[in-house]
Amino acid sequence: MIGLGTYAFFWQHSERVDEPLSLTGAFEATRALGVDLFQICDFAPLQRMGGGELREAAAAARDLGLAIELGTRGIEPEHLSMFLDLAEVFEARLVRSMVYGDRSRPALPEAERWLRKSLPGFESAGVTIALETYEQVATADLVDLVSACGSDRLGVCLDPGNVVARLERPREAVAATAHLVANVHAKDFAFTREAGWVGFTYSGVPLGTGLHDYPHLLETVRPRERGVNEIVEHWLPWQGDARATVRAEREWTRTAIEYLRSTA
């Protein structure tokens, strides 16, 4: 299933715009685009909401016919337990996370211990943890970690754009993780020369126009055959002012959805 995530609304949620978009506003915008899935990912206000606010947000998603996934950073057992509780509120079946959190950088043996402590609760609830490919942890090490835990409720959130910062090749990350992928972050990326030809900027571009070989990902991972959701995100640079940036963000989202649908 195609979904949108909070990173598709990054600037619209930002305080740099006059009227930041609320979570419910993002739900409504998602539904208006004919999309049935939303991933609340790294959305700081979520953890500050009280029980009533959370139930209202979950009810708003249900009323709109949206399925919800969640996303956070870190795998401390207490932290994952909190997100398992949030998953129950939102009826979410997946929590995307990262091995390194905002305050923790576990070595791999400790990461495995933490995950093994958390996984029985996720398995009982039927909720999957998807650990994202990221530059902080080598893709091969992430694959070994997920494989060592040996749980059907632990997989990989595949985001090939992140691994470039570790000098890994996106296509190789796709191939290495394909059998473990439980979630896909769909965005594109490219290098551009800096002014004066001194260095490069690595940034986002509209999906289907950059260096990401998305057809290769579809062929290798087969997400649609396996029921793996594809969540639209962006690395959209600030466009000089709020109005232009929001306009570009909405256009990138629209064209990303069109691109994904065209590959069906």
Automatic annotation (TrEMBL):
Residues 27-255 form the Xylose isomerase-like TIM barrel domain. The keyword Isomerase applies. The keyword Heme does not apply. Keywords: Isomerase. GO terms for molecular function: isomerase activity. It comes from the Bacteria. PANTHER family: HYDROXYPYRUVATE ISOMERASE (PTHR12110), XYLOSE ISOMERASE (PTHR12110:SF52). This is Sugar phosphate isomerase/epimerase.
